[in-house]
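Title: Request for sanity check on HTH cro/C1-type domain-containing protein prediction

Description:
We are preparing a figure and want to confirm that the structure record we downloaded matches what your pipeline produces today. Could someone re-run it with the sequence below and paste the raw structure tokens into this thread? We only need the token string, no images.
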Amino acid sequence: MIKENQMTKQFPQRPTVAEYLADKIAAIDKTQRQIAEECGFDNPNIITMFKLGQTKLPINRIAPLAKALEVDPAFLLRLVMYEYMKESWECVENIMQSTVLSANELQLVRAYREVTGDNDAAAVVIDRSAVLAIVTA
């Protein structure tokens, strides 16, 4: 007999903006001063404040920071908007009937369209725990 907790799968959780930035800043071979300069910040302490979640990343600094950290700006935008202005972000996505895709997600969409002959075929998710299988008719 399968226990209830064996049936419940844990999917990765969305990182907070602070967690994401802390991880990416730690992974890149740049000082916080270099990152701050590339983004047009006068004081490198602002980078620490972003990492600790003490200060929100201004929307107009998402693109320069993403470039400095060599990360996908669309993904960072989505994280920032979801965390800082969730209701507004959801409203924009609903009105636009779309979502902002990261480069990796866009690659998946393009592959899906190629496989389906761009025929708007319905996808069936086989297993979300480790691998996504796309089945089309």
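Thanks, this matches our download. The radius of gyration is 19 Å.
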